Amino acid sequence: MNSIIEDIRATARQLLTDGKVDVVIGYEKGSLPLSATPCFVRSPQDTDKLIWDETCENNLAAFSTLTQGKKAIIAKGCDSRALVVLLQENQLVRDDLYIIGVSCQGVINKKKIEAETGEILEASINPGKITVKGMECDKEFTFAELKDASCQTCRYPNPVLEDIHIGGLIEVAQQAAVFADVTEMENKTDAERQAYFKEQMSKCIRCYACRNACPLCYCKECFVDCNSPKWLTGGVDSAENLFFQAGRVLHLAGRCVECGACSRACPQDVDIRALNRKMSKDVFNMYHHESGISVEGSGALNEYSADDPEAFLVKE
Questions:
Q1: Which parts of the sequence belong to the 4Fe-4S ferredoxin-type domain (predicted)?
Q2: Do 42 and 151 lie in a common domain?
Q3: Measured by CB atoms within 10 angstroms of the end CB, which terminus of the chain is less buried, N or C?
């Protein structure tokens, strides 16, 4: 067991013993290989179940608004950014929140493994390597091969807001946001983009796993569940699937922290990230805003500046 896990457990145990929090939201080993699952520790004796490794993929901020009382939460960089947005939107009370920050090298995407080995039967994680016994074959992967796409473009692996930090910090070169993947999509013709997203949306079964995994989809009634007006039918249709995904992306404009939880939760491997990244790029270019970086201020679409672009007001 590494020192980070020991320190997480010790910190959680002390917080619960001292009565500073009612619950610690963290990760425990899942029932399947290479899986971690969110857990809610309410007694010092149960802190030994807490873990930390490359399988801790869930954005735990998604559970923060659903958990009553004073809570501690183990937060990666993207988790902390989501917490910042939730604080800005008055969904959380800062005094009821204790953030245990841990820097993150990235999480693995199990879909990449299963595409080559089939169902994972056994697996072990060693420094820089992951060894897998699969239904179809056995294989050893490097962590770089399995790193989730959202982690590959992450610029904030260190928590931006925390009460205590566990482990070391990750050195990150200061650079402007890079959207090479979005630019590549923008350079395609209209017909090529239309064909791509039509194909992607044809896979969507509208299970809403993406919405449920998102820490910032906290509405008690989603627009797709409304009966009056009724936005979508109950069936599965490519056009309506795109309407749902586009509507969700617009609702996340200036709020999405690009944690990738939605894409990893999708059972159909729909490229939801392409839409989110496009919106993030447009918000960054138009408003010079990255969501969840500082608790000061508010979202990009909640502020007005005389310098805001107003091209949409100009009649051509």
A1: 247-278
A2: yes
A3: C
How many other C-beta atoms lie within 10 A of the C-beta of residue 229? 6
In this structure, are 166 and 135 located in the same domain?
no
- 272-287 and 238-251 are packed helices; what angle lies between their axes, rounded to 10 degrees? 40
The values of phi and psi at residue 95, to 5°, are -70, -20
Q: Cβ(78)–Cβ(53) under 8 Å?
A: no
Distances (CA, A) of 68 to 6, 12, 75: 26, 17, 18
pLDDT for residue 233: 81
Calculate what percentage of the chain has a pLDDT beyond 90.
Answer: 80
**28 within a domain of the structure (yes/no):** yes
Pick from 161, 171, 152: nearest CA to 61: 161
Cα-Cα-Cα-Cα dihedral of 9, 11, 16, 22, to 10°?
Answer: -90
Whether 10 contacts 48, CB under 8 Å: no
What residues contact residue 74 under an 8 Å CB cut-off, 6+ apart? Answer: 8, 24, 25, 26, 27, 50, 52, 56, 60, 100, 102
Cβ(118)–Cβ(139) under 8 Å?
no
Q: What is the structure's pLDDT at 316?
A: 56
Give the span between the Cα atoms of 8 and 165, in whole angstroms: 9
Burial status of residue 220 (CB atoms within 10 A of its CB: 0-12, 13-18, 19 or more): exposed
- Boundaries of domain holding 259: 2-109+147-302
CB hemisphere CA count around 203 (13 angstroms): 12
| Side chain identity at residue 172, one-letter code | V
Distance CA 57, CA 51 (A): 12
Is residue 126 within a helix (H) or strand (E), and if so which, with residue range?
strand 120-126
Query: The whole model's pTM is what?
Result: 0.92
Question: Considering 100, 125, 146, which residue would you say is the last residue of a domain?
Answer: 146
CA distances, 76 to each of 20, 60, 288 (Å): 21, 9, 23
